[in-house]
Amino acid sequence: MDTAGNYPRGRKTGGEDRRVDLSVSIGPLRLKNPFLTASGTFGYGTEFDGVVDLSRIGGVVTKSLTLCPREGNPPPRICETPAGMLNSIGLENCGLETFVARKLPALAALPTRVIVSVAGESADEYAAVVERLAGEEAVDGFEINVSCPNVKAGTSFGSDPRLAGPLIARLRRASRKPMIVKLTPSAPDIIDVARACAAEGADGAVICNTFPGMVIDVRTRAPAVANVAGGISGPAIRPLAVRLVYLAHRALPGFPIVGSGGICSIEDAAQFFIAGASAVQIGTANFFDPNLLNRLASDLEKYLTGQGLSDFRSLIGNMRLPA
Ligand SMILES: Cc1cc2nc3c(=O)[nH]c(=O)nc-3n(C[C@H](O)[C@H](O)[C@H](O)COP(=O)(O)O)c2cc1C
User: What's the predicted TM-score (pTM) here?
Assistant: First the structure.
């Protein structure tokens, strides 16, 4: 670390003394290992200071950022569910201006990759955020969250390949930085959306965001979250997400997939890798096991050694199908 608190760039991508090579690339984005935080579950990278050693993970994905600050939905906004949680946070975030002034300097000093999640209600809003951050050295890449509602079309960009493709094409013109798109399982066909984004230059896709869900308090007969419905995350959605990763990897070989959904252990993460994910994100587990991120790289090394593999990349999509 230099006197300004900055780590040399190499600390973001390597420098670990490991017998097994855990590095992986998502398009042009090189990661020292395949573990990322999931947007919205890890703040702006510094909230877990003293708990998580960020030099042990491949990267941090920020809370989704919009052009203007957003308060999000009214409380209550979260509720525990069997094997998971329901949230209706509604993209609460500090907005672009505050992000640049107050969050970016700390993010620049992190010893890991920094991916900024971008959200918006129109293509213009997404483009304004990407254009402003395109020249910032602290930003190693973008994650385009297409799960939020598009006001004009009345649906989310991620639900329709005819909206998602042109959005990625426009953002691709705004920045050459690595760009992955975060897809929603609510799309009628998530593979069609992934294909459209890949065709327009996305470097990979996160599969997937939360699944729509609802909980009702039968005593009060009121919904558990004020927004009535929300998104389900945690182990409950893991088998659903693993299947989508498997289908996407088979349909789009060579297009990097980042798995997301209910990962709580190396065994959970390995399922995603075997299904075809090049990297994974840890979300809800951060709330009940913040130490997980500290363990995953070592646990992966042990798992690979046990499998007789010396290179993480040889695990990706390496599934034994029944004869
Ligand atoms: C409280 C909460 C807030 C979230 N906020 C965002 C967000 O701002 N942007 C986004 O793309 N995903 C958001 N997500 C979705 C997560 O990033 C992740 O994709 C999803 O929760 C599934 O992974 P998990 O089961 O490991 O949590 C949020 C999830 C939770 C639980």
Answer: 0.96
